[in-house]
Amino acid sequence: MTPAGTFTDPFTVPLARLRERTSAKWRHYDADVLPLWVAEMDVDLADPIREALERAIRDGDMGYPGSTPYVEAFGSFARDTWGWQVDEARVAPVQSVILGYVDALIELTDAGGEVIVNPPVYPPFFQYLIQADRAIREAPLGADMRLDLAAIDRAMAEATAGGRRAAYLLCSPHNPGGTVHTREELAAVAELSRRHGVPVVSDEIHAPIVYPGATFVPYLEVDPTGMALHAASKTWNLAAIPAALLVGGPEAAGFDSYRAGKHHSPTHLGVIAQTAAYNEGRDWYAGLMAGLDRNRLLVRDLVAEHLPGVSYLVPEGTYLTWLGFGDLLGDEPAYALIERGRVALNNGPYFGTGGARHARLNIATSPAILEEAVRRIGTVLAQG
Ligand SMILES: Cc1ncc(COP(=O)(O)O)c(C=O)c1O
Questions:
Q1: In sequence order, which residues have a C-beta less than 8 Å from that of residue 138 and are 6 or more positions away?
Q2: pLDDT (tens digit, 9 = 90+) per residue, 22-46?
Q3: What is the pLDDT of residues 338-356, one digit of tens each?
């Protein structure tokens, strides 16, 4: 245990060592670019996860995954973290969160059918579903980056016109910007879902990363017909070895039909790592949250001081923050930032309607790197 008021900061990996990483974050751009884009954190693995993976490699434990310990570990984490009593009989390991929601939405809609999303939102909410022959209907967030219930109501009515089947893919907490939906908002979504007969799939991959002042509410607590996706992969930085969990509400018909089909399983190493994360990675997680909470407020202060005219939505959850550049750098500000500032953010328009003139900034790094990133952005703005 660490003494009260102190924490073990995971954001201490030196830049020189980060630059040795071969992941997309560190290799996609030239070596002089500071990468603050894709959802990867600049941390080392939590010790219990590293030890579990080392053990598996040493022992040649390289087969297909079992599922019970993973599901139980998630159930215990959900109980302890959110007070959520998950029915473990209705939890299915899936290959990844993306493939989990795509498969779930395929169960709930027909070819050519519509899936409602709330842009600006995580770009794979569009691409993979279009590839699976589903159409996307946008119900954009309000200017405050919160759910617009009237827009969702309209979208559900239009998507089901003529008796067609449609579904709604919710991002909870929301990426980008980190809005944490309240119980009242989610209950209103559940009511719309019931009224229009549009089932909800809730992507809750960022659920553990919620800051003081906000509370994550599992969607299935307000809607027994919904399905949710969970994973430890964002919180413990495990994108390299995918695994995720599809949770079916007690009345989720789509979950039963999903179960009846044949699907790819997660990676065994992903299951091992996430099981260790949920069971033994909780001290590390406490340090992560303290570090991210410091970072989100640091960026608020840095933006206020050095980036006049730029808006920053202090996130309630996630480490994927949202900067608004107004008229300063055109519709796609990330281009100027990379070309002239050598700092890589995600360009807003990729997130759909409402994304123009914005960029997504990943704050899961050291304070020194955040300070340097803001300095570089400030240099571009000063050039006009
Ligand atoms: C909202 C959301 N869903 C899913 C994913 C990716 O999940 P997976 O790698 O398990 O497919 C991310 C990654 O950043 C995400 O932000």
A1: 116, 117, 118, 119, 155, 352, 353
A2: 999 999 999 999 999 999 999 999 9
A3: 999 999 999 999 999 999 9
Tell me the three state secondary structure of residue 5: coil
Backbone angles phi, psi at 192, to 5 degrees: -65, -40
Taking the C-alpha atoms of residue 1 and residue 48, their distance in angstroms, rounded to an integer, is: 15
Residue 310's SS3 state is coil
Q: Which atom of ligand 1 is nearest to the CA of 98?
A: 11
Q: How confident is the model at residue 1 (pLDDT cuts 50, 70, 90)?
A: very low
Question: Would you list the domain boundaries of the chain?
Answer: 15-45+282-383, 50-280
CATH class label, 15-45+282-383:
alpha beta
Q: State the closest ligand 1 atom to the C-alpha of 96, by its place in the atom list counted from 1.
A: 10
Q: What is the CATH number of domain 50-280?
A: 3.40.640.10
Rg (CA), the chain: 21
- Which residues surround ligand 1 with Cβ inside 6 Å? 39, 96-98, 122, 171, 175, 203, 205, 231, 233-234, 239, 242, 244
